[in-house]
From TrEMBL:
The keyword Zinc does not apply. SUPFAM superfamilies: NAD(P)-binding Rossmann-fold domains. GO terms for molecular function: oxidoreductase activity, acting on the CH-OH group of donors, NAD or NADP as acceptor. It comes from Abyssalbus ytuae. This is SDR family oxidoreductase. Pfam families: adh_short_C2 (PF13561). Belongs to the short-chain dehydrogenases/reductases (SDR) family. Keywords: Oxidoreductase. InterPro entries: NAD(P)-bd_dom_sf, Sc_DH/Rdtase_CS, SDR_fam.
Length: 258
């Protein structure tokens, strides 16, 4: 069993902690899992694709543990968390996994809208609920949800994604208030435009959009995945011990740019 109290070394690196990062086999989730593992946090990386998830864990190192699971399988999430918890307390949960859909409002079907909400919201609720049961027993925990700048202002052709991320932010605040009494903090990080394969693909096919994004970003550049990982790491540790229910924008000022 892991010790109940927090342990830190002389460099304020978190030791003897356990984290779960959903969608941690690529992009922002990968950067976050890497940050955790480099700082001594045993990290369960949940991914749907076996080869991709196992390869990511091999690259990151021995603190990364692959968990092959589709979070759309809500009924089996309780069993998944029980299996992980048998190895010790769960200190940190990062709800990063999510999907997007770029489509005209009037062409988006009910099934497509439901699918986005199912992955981006329903699964977040289900896994958070089960992890909270474990954290309550330990009297502490930190939950970090990944939101998006899409929750800050209107973006065209991503109505389902926008709705899901808006819900994530209100979910974060509601959970923070209810769970504070158990020593559990809940916060969210809202990334702007970050240098990921998904963003690169979008910009390559739409240079006008790229120019518009950079023009309204005061810092005039895209962020790095490590920028988001650093923000998540802050929320995961003792430096944010009196912080809950907040949304941290990591976007170079894009959400307040003119």
């Amino acid at each position: 069993m892991l010790p109940a109290e927090d342990k830190y070394n002389s460099n304020n690196q978190q030791m003897n902690k356990t984290a779960i990062v959903t969608g941690g086999n690529s992009g922002l989730g990968y950067a976050t899992a890497k940050k955790f593992c480099e700082n001594g946090i045993k990290t369960y990386i949940i991914g749907r694709t076996k080869d991709k998830t196992e390869k990511a864990c091999e690259e990151i190192g021995p603190n990364a543990i692959p968990v092959i699971f589709d979070l759309n399988d809500l009924e089996n999430i309780p069993g998944l968390i029980k299996d992980i918890a048998r190895n010790g307390p769960i200190d940190i949960l990062v709800n990063n996994a999510g999907i997007n859909l770029k489509k005209e409002f009037t062409e988006t079907t009910d099934e497509e809208f439901r699918s986005i909400l199912h992955t981006n919201l329903f699964s977040v609720f289900a896994i958070t609920r089960e992890v909270v049961k474990v954290m309550k027993e330990n009297g502490k925990g930190s939950i970090i949800n990944i939101s998006s700048m899409a929750s800050k202002y209107g973006l065209p052709k991503v109505i389902a994604y926008t709705a899901s991320k808006g819900a994530i932010e209100t979910f974060t605040r509601g959970a923070a208030v209810e769970l504070a009494q158990y020593g559990i903090r809940v916060n969210a990080v809202a990334p702007g435009f970050i240098k990921t394969k998904m963003v690169a693909k979008a910009f390559d096919s739409d240079p006008e959009r790229r120019d518009k994004v950079l023009a309204r970003t005061p810092m005039g550049k895209l962020g790095e995945p490590s920028d988001v990982a650093d923000a998540v790491y802050y929320y995961a540790g003792a430096d944010s011990k009196f912080t809950t229910g907040t949304i941290l924008c990591v976007d170079g000022g894009n959400s307040i740019g003119f």
